[in-house]
Write the structure tokens for this entry.
Amino acid sequence: MVPAIAAEKITLYDLEQRFNLQLRADEAFFLEWQRELPNLSLDEQQRLDRVRAVVANLERRSVLENTVKLAVIAPLLDLAGLFLPPFYVSTEDSVEITATDQSLVVRGRLDVLVLKEQLWILVIESKRAEFSIKVGIPQALSYMLGTPDQTRPLYGLVTNGTDFVFLKLVFQQVPCYGRSRQFVLGQDHDLAQVLRVLKRLAAIAA
């Protein structure tokens, strides 16, 4: 029997060794989070101010994963237009991927999956707010590796509600991924930049 591991326990080392995943550190690999970002309207900026106020209130106590999704992720998806056609949102989907040498199976459940015509456009994995965002990156990449369509780039967002990292995965001779810088809710304009990147990726996928 092929051994199985839960996605939340997978590491980047596991993905590199078992699935030949490679990091592309060159800036040109993932320009989508850096260039041609749309401007935000006054209404969008005001709604982001409200999200910041909500998070500031939640930070006064321990914030669970579902609360983060409700308070932060849902408003961002809505503002980016990802609740509207041609996109639709699914939650708690199961996924399974098998290592290239058939030596390991990774199983897990997606927190939020935004799809367009059966294409995986954004895989969003929210973690407990107390945990480092780095914990979610290999988990999100393992889910993205399980896509049934390997002909187009996949984009992901890992967030704990206050920190955000975008991912890009491309299937070439071997799967390659790149990552954005880490955006932090409390830093000037970072939440606005997260929304701008989301809107840019939505425009690419539409």
Notes: Residues 35 and 63 are 33 Å apart (CA to CA).
